[in-house]
Amino acid sequence: MTTTLNPADKSAGITLSSGNLVMSYTSGSGDQSARATTGLSSGKVYFEAKFAASAGGDQGAGLANIGANLATAMSGPTGAIICYPATGNVYKNGVSQGTINAVSVNAWMGFAIDFGAGKLWIRNATATPTTWNGGGADPATNTGGYLLSGLDATLYPIGGLPSTVGGPWTFNFGVSGFAAALPSGFVAYDSGAPTVTFLNNASWTNTAAATVHISTLITDCILLVTVYNEHTGTAAATVSSVTGAGATFALRKRSNGSATGGLDLWWGHATGDLSNVNLTVNFSGAYDDAVINVCAVTGCANQSAPFDTNAGLPAALSAPTVTWTPSFSGINTSQAHDTLLFIAGSVSPTGAWTPPTGFTNIAHPTYGGGSWACMAAVDAQQVSTLQSGITVTSGTALSNSFSGTATCGEAIFDALTADVSAGGGGSQARVMVLA
Question: What pTM was estimated for this model as a whole?
Fold first, then answer.
């Protein structure tokens, strides 16, 4: 995915230049606008825009529905949420949302969008990069934020100019460095890597066929199923199969070298309706407790082979001691636009779960219905460059507080890719955890 302003989705008097990232008002009358080529509906993304000449009025930038009228998107606005930099005013569907710090000529405005939370944060990225939405807001902690309710699920960056100014607006979707650091957990709008959102999990005690319910409007996606189980004082059970959702599941990786723990990663391509279905995880052997997480991945370049093709992936580690901090070293990828996955399981972590540096926690349920207890964590990080010899270390130690001798920790490292070089064609990947 390469996001630019769209030559086929702009007002007639707008001229695009510099790889369609700069828009200028060159002819005509009234407000005129240009929308981006790519709309998104999931993930935590960031882009910037700046203007080179100020006229106030309807000179603005923000997010718009695909159907928002290019002639009226700035005035009102209708079907859009727009920030007017000369004043800092923010309006959505004609209603004031608040005011950010005013932005001067040639200063960058930063837009952080969390589609999962349904919120937008805006800042003067050049002069006051730590002040969002005028103060008291922070996308990294989901504090404050302008609500996106009342707009479409899929939104497009947009810029507009009145007839009194030629602009230009310049947009940066990630093709070059930003004026200010990305908020924690966010990636460039045009990162091209899978995007992660939380979904669902289930917990069971020694049940041979354990189920987890899925209810989502997502279709034609990859389903990822991660399962950790522990068995008091002896080897854990293994997952013999995963069934349901009209998908054929295959084992991607198993890690069960510790004395009492086992961690599995299964995947399958689901093409049907997932609005009300159950997945069944079938175990071979007895266990004490088990935790199951389910994720969906959409838009991979190759639905039949969605993973990075590097020979070193997936990787697995098993706890050598009762208390252990998983750390993968020498990790390489063969595709650039990947979502890295760090998956871990344990009888009981030491303190609250903390993902590796740069990773976002997707799920970390715990369950103690049996004699012991267990936890399974899924963490993810989006990247847009090849990874070479990296080290990824958990922020939390894994341990067995129920036994002073039995090891239990397991970890798997893998990567999903959006790159066509992994095989086949298609759009960029998006990852969601199903609830």
Answer: 0.62
